[in-house]
Amino acid sequence: MREFKVDKLSVIVADSNQEMGKTAADAIAADLRKLGREKAEIRVMFAAAPSQNTMFEALRNLPDIPWEKIVAFHMDEYIGISIDRPQSFRAFLKNAIFDKKPFKAVNLIEGDASDVEGAIKRYEALLRERPMDMIVLGIGENGHIAFNDPDVADFNDKHLVKIVGLDDVCRQQQVNDGCFATFDDVPSHAITVTIPAFRQAGVLHCVVPNERKANAVKAALQGPVSEKCPASILRTHDNAHLYIDAGSASLL
């Protein structure tokens, strides 16, 4: 394992996905314990993606995490996908962590609400109460964070939550990840938390395995800080950490 910095961003390169997940989980747990000593309530936002599986597996088994103080959020959901479908990000996170630990509260994005705009306003109001203490995220094959694809990403978005169209690379990634059988099965629109919410968070832990992410990691670390690769904004955050494995680091 090796470490280096790109601008303000700490980068940790592990030899394998398993090592990467364990390393990230150890760091996340250490920060949560520290926050638990300092705060009565910890606001944490999680990504929902297979790329997070090794981290979640390790995190669930670590001791002394103050789950009962954590108010949990997530960062995106498909429009029109109900929580009882396996493709739902709410369902993913309930299975990965939300139903497995005694959180103080869990706040879910209702992508299938009868009043989607109302659901967005309610979620944005929750986010505006106070910035996240921590966000645990990934990077998409097109460089997105949450569903802020290059065509819709705005580093200075006035909204904290919005509806976005998903680009073809993003939709194909959902097939590549095994979440949908075909491209046409992937919804074309989703609700996403926007980039200013990430910029305001106290600490960012970004977990990115797999050689399919190598181009995005290269662009994020070696290209300009630009909405053309939304993940490049991580390099400007004062307390951000990127965990990659041999595959995702292969083009560096």
Q: Tally of extended strands?
A: 11
Helix content: 25-40%
Q: State the end-to-end distance.
A: 14 Å
> Which segments are poorly predicted (pLDDT under 50) over 5 or more consecutive residues?
none
CATH architecture: 3-Layer(aba) Sandwich
> Count the helices. How many?
7
Assigned CATH class: Alpha Beta
Architecture overview:
- The chain has helices spanning 17-38, 53-60, 89-98, 116-129, 168-176, 195-200, 214-222; strands at residues 2-6, 9-13, 42-46, 70-74, 76-78, 105-106, 134-137, 161-165, 189-193, 203-208, 240-244.
- The protein is of the alpha/beta class.
- The chain has a single domain (2-244), classed as 3-Layer(aba) Sandwich (Rossmann fold).
- The protein has an eight-stranded mixed β-sheet with strand order 1-2-11-10-7-3-4-6, sandwiched between helices. The protein has a three-stranded antiparallel β-sheet with strand order 5-9-8.
- The chain starts with a strand and ends in an 8-residue tail after the last strand.
- The mean pLDDT is 96.
Which secondary structure elements does this structure contain, and how are they paired or packed?
Elements: E1 2-6, E2 9-13, H1 17-38, E3 42-46, H2 53-60, E4 70-74, E5 76-78, H3 89-98, E6 105-106, H4 116-129, E7 134-137, E8 161-165, H5 168-176, E9 189-193, H6 195-200, E10 203-208, H7 214-222, E11 240-244
Parallel strand pairs: 2-11, 3-4, 3-7, 4-6, 7-10, 10-11
Antiparallel strand pairs: 1-2, 5-9, 8-9
Helix pairs in contact: 1-2
